[in-house]
Amino acid sequence: DNNEKIVDYIKLDRHQLNHSVGRSFDGASEWSIFTESTPGLSNSNQTAYNGYVSAPTFNFDAGFYADAILLEISCDSPGVEIYYTLDGSAPDSGSDYYGYVDSGGVLIPQNSSLVINNTTVVKAVAISQDASFLNSFIETNTYFINEDHSISVISVAGVLVDNLLNGNQIR
């Protein structure tokens, strides 16, 4: 206001690129997430989402393993389908299907676990079956299987890694 008093405040949680946080509709007290930003304009023509579903979790931490591992993927959000990739690409509903978490929070996997027997970048996403929630953030782990190393190792996985490594991202 004119007296430099704080009239309204929200602490922003992490949100996905190009998503915005705003009032559900003009004059509403609830905050929502929007997939299209409308700075200075009404959100009344936009779909307001309650948030993101939880990201999937893996039963093994990323790291080095002497032998193959049996990887399981789960999610704390009910009403989601879990999809994954094993090639480092971003998973979506066209990727390999892992299973479904029912409305009671029980995971119903298509297979009990994934056999990871060589070095692999695993990415997983939970896709919401509830139209009021957005899909999860992508969870990524790299599993180094039967790999020897004498120096510190970092795994960088992504679609534009070549641009990052070659310095082509800055113009």
Give short descriptive properties of this protein.
six-stranded mixed sheet; 171 residues; 14 strands; mainly beta; two-stranded antiparallel ribbon; globular
Structural commentary:
The protein has 171 residues and is mainly β. Helices cover 4% and strands 33% of the residues. The chain contains 1 helix and 14 strands. The chain has one helix at 161-166, and strands spanning 20-23, 31-34, 51-52, 57-58, 63-65, 69-71, 73-74, 80-85, 96-101, 107-109, 114-116, 120-128, 133-134, 139-145. A 6-stranded mixed beta sheet has the order 5-14-12-8-9-10, with no helix packed on it. A hairpin with a 5-residue loop joins strand 9 (96-101) and strand 10. The longest helix has 6 residues, at 161-166. The model has no long low-confidence stretch (mean pLDDT 88).
Low-confidence stretches: none
Sum up the overall morphology in one term. globular
Q: What strand line-up does the widest sheet have?
A: 5-14-12-8-9-10
Q: What is the count of β-strands?
A: 14
How would you state the average pLDDT, rounded? 88
Class by alpha and beta content: mainly beta
Binned, the helix content reads: under 10%
User: What is the succession of H and E elements?
Assistant: EEEEEEEEEEEEEEH
Instruction: Specify the biggest β-sheet.
Output: 6 strands, mixed
Count of alpha/pi helices = 1
- Taken as a percent bin, the fraction of beta residues is 25-35%
- What is the C-alpha radius of gyration, as a whole number of Å? 20 Å
Query: How many angstroms does the end-to-end distance come to?
Result: 41 Å
SSE topology sketch:
Layout: E1 20-23, E2 31-34, E3 51-52, E4 57-58, E5 63-65, E6 69-71, E7 73-74, E8 80-85, E9 96-101, E10 107-109, E11 114-116, E12 120-128, E13 133-134, E14 139-145, H1 161-166
Parallel strand pairs: 3-13, 5-14
Antiparallel strand pairs: 1-2, 4-7, 6-11, 8-9, 8-12, 9-10, 12-14
